[in-house]
Amino acid sequence: MCFRSPILYGFDSVTVLVKNHIIFRKFNVKRRNILESFRQEYLLTCRFHPTRDPLCPVFALRDMVTHAGESLEEMAVKGGIIGFAIDWDCDLDYGEDNCLPNYSFRRLDNRYDKIAKGWNFRHTFYYYDADGKARRDLIKFWGIRFVFLVSGRAGKFYSVNFILHVGSSIGLFSCASVICEFLLALTRRSDLLRSTKFVYLEKIKENRRMSSLNSTTAVWNNNLNGEVWGGRLNSHGCITSSRRHSLDSASESPPSVVRKDMAVQQENSISNPQGARNREWVYL
Questions:
Q1: Are strands 15-17 and 58-60 parallel, antiparallel or unpaired?
Q2: H or E segment at 73?
Q3: Sequence-distant contacts of 114-122: CB under 8 A, at least 24 apart
Q4: Which helix H or strand E contains 173, and what residues bound it?
């Protein structure tokens, strides 16, 4: 693409000294881009470069356009707007001396605009000529406009905020468990979840009743008439219920009862008037 030559030559070597101040009121910290360690000789000779000298506040016009990814010759003819960004991102835990600026450049207007491309404007001059007639001159200007964009952010560790954030995080964890339980309750295995998580009162009573029945003792006694009386002892040693069975002989054991000589060797030493001895079967 062929461009018209710029009207003004040699302007690409023009340098600009940029001064920027910023204050962080919350921490009462004031900073500026010209550091205390700079000397006057350094400011006269340094030129900004993103890698070799990123803190130098002196900028050449050509360098600023080049760092924005544009051509100075094209912008000198058509004009354009360059954004000059100064970003302060400071961690004050490392000290105020480490709070340094970061420079960057970008083009703000669209170079591919079809109408009113670039940055230009018209200006009129009104005057009277030698004959006393009113004249007007309309002049169109093209140029490069620089817009400074300054942003700053600073932070410092604060124990109270740290505790608040930890507490809120723990609260989020508890909410997460509630949400998970709600989602699991909507699945097909919700009954299993309820039976595992909750204990019902009816089930507790039933388990206690079964355990009390299993822990009681069944006592059986046969007399001379061949009748067997059976009862169940509670935890206090009292018979709560009894049944009677008829046996063919006094030596026969009642059904589902273990003989006393297989369980507990106890024998009643008291004899009845006929000289027979009572036998007892104890089921433990």
A1: antiparallel
A2: helix 72-78
A3: 117/78, 118/75, 118/78, 118/79, 118/80, 118/142, 119/79, 119/80, 119/81, 119/143, 119/144, 119/145, 120/78, 120/79
A4: helix 159-185
* Mean pLDDT lowest among 142-146, 199-203, 211-215, 224-228: 224-228
Do residues 65 and 72 make contact, with C-beta atoms less than 8 angstroms apart? yes
Does pTM surpass 0.70? no
| Tokens describing residue 184 | 């699991």
Confidence class for position 267, pLDDT limits 50, 70, 90: very low
| pLDDT tens-digit series, residues 234-257 | 444 454 444 444 444 444 444 444
Judged by DSSP in three states, 31 sits in strand
Residue length, the chain? 284
Write the single-letter amino acid at 53.
D
Angle at 217 between CA 216 and CA 223, to 5 degrees: 150
Taking the C-alpha atoms of residue 48 and residue 102, their distance in angstroms, rounded to an integer, is 11
